[in-house]
Amino acid sequence: xxxxxxxxxxxxxxxxxxxTVHEVSHGLAADRLGDPTARLLGRLTLNPLRHLDPVGxxxxxxxxxxxxxxxxxxxANLNQPRRDMIWVALVGPLSNFTxxxxxxxxxxxxxxxxxxxxxxxxxxxxxxxxALMAAFSLYINVILGLFNLLPIPPLDGGRVLTGLxxxxxxxxxxxxxxxxxxxxxxxIFFTDLWRVVLEPVIAYLVGLIAGTQITVVHEVVKxxxxx
Length: 227
Description:
There is one protein chain. By secondary structure, the chain is an all-alpha fold. The chain is 71% helix and 0% strand. The protein has one domain (2-225). It has helices at residues 2-32, 37-40, 54-63, 81-111, 121-148, 156-164, 167-174, 180-190, 193-210, 214-225. Helix 4 (81-111) crosses helix 6. The radius of gyration is 19 Å and the shape is globular. The two termini are 12 Å apart.
């Protein structure tokens, strides 16, 4: 039980920040491009309670990926709906990759702190948890960014693809949206998509961002997600 609460204490802040920033980014982009829906509904806030989906948050903490309540966007309000839909969709994954890079920079920077600082109990009690959270933040944001770029509605990649396709093909793709999450579950758990495609790309991006601190990320993820 003690290990369970230790894991939650490390994962909670990075996970909530990842999904909150992702959704707020969608809302901010939509607001800038002509749709005030998210702002009018009070969703342009970093208060995670306004964005949480209970099942998605639990999934994020247990299996390493999850979701929040989508920020409402009325694409008809956008200045140029087909073009602007692409930008509104893209900013979500881009915000996650930005958080991953910032987490990687923090992790690398902390590795160069003077070793003498660790002799101070107060400093050490701050440095270690922050390093653990930064390592998990890097990992979870790479997963969320990449996962959301899959070209399957209602994921952001599906929105991007819908905006790029000719109207007839875009309408056909949109009709698959109600079945999107079922298709995702099938692809992730019953095909080799995760092992053959996603896992190698995730490993490459995490290694690229973490650099010499990749071992730290591996150890943290192994500890947090082990059963």
